[in-house]
Design brief:
Length: 157
């Protein structure tokens, strides 16, 4: 395994990149910089996108080329001509489509509600009536993330 700990010496470039990201996060949290966790993750992500380095996510081999081609398709901008009308609602009159949509909605609402209330209760953010401040915004963020993440998830299948 290349880049592993051999002879008691840490020589893996990806380990050191991860350590640098961790230090960025730690320093930011120590100085109470808002978004420091994101800054550390962004640093590691952007550095790993640079091709031709020992820490790249896209090495010069078959796997790296495949990852890079997929990455280019994800971040590429498409003209409206290639995306307009791509979704067809002609099959929405079938009952199994509505059952599937209802099931996914039901599961998403239950998962969100369970996670939200559990974490809010542990954190002490639930008032005497069982309400959480910012509950509406939390559900809106979850709905937006679900809508944005659904096309990505379907491409992974």
């Amino acid at each position: 395994m290349t880049g592993a700990c051999t002879g008691g010496k840490m020589r893996s470039p990806t380990f050191w990149l991860g350590t640098a990201g961790f230090l960025i996060m730690s320093f930011g949290l120590m100085k109470e910089i808002k978004g420091s966790m994101i800054y550390g993750m962004l640093f590691v992500t952007l550095v790993s996108w640079i091709r031709g380095t020992s820490v790249t996510h896209f090495p010069n081999n078959r796997t790296g080329e495949s990852r890079y081609e997929y990455f280019k398709r994800v971040v590429d901008f498409h003209t409206i001509k290639s995306t307009a009308g791509a979704i067809s609602f002609s099959q929405f009159n079938r009952s199994n489509v509505w059952v599937a949509l209802f099931t996914l909605l039901y599961i998403d609402v239950l998962a969100t509600t369970g996670s939200l209330y559990t974490l809010a209760e542990i954190g002490g953010f639930v008032d005497e009536q069982g309400n959480i401040e910012g509950e509406y915004q939390a559900y809106m963020v979850d709905g937006g993330a679900t809508a944005v993440g659904a096309p990505w998830e379907s491409q992974q299948l």
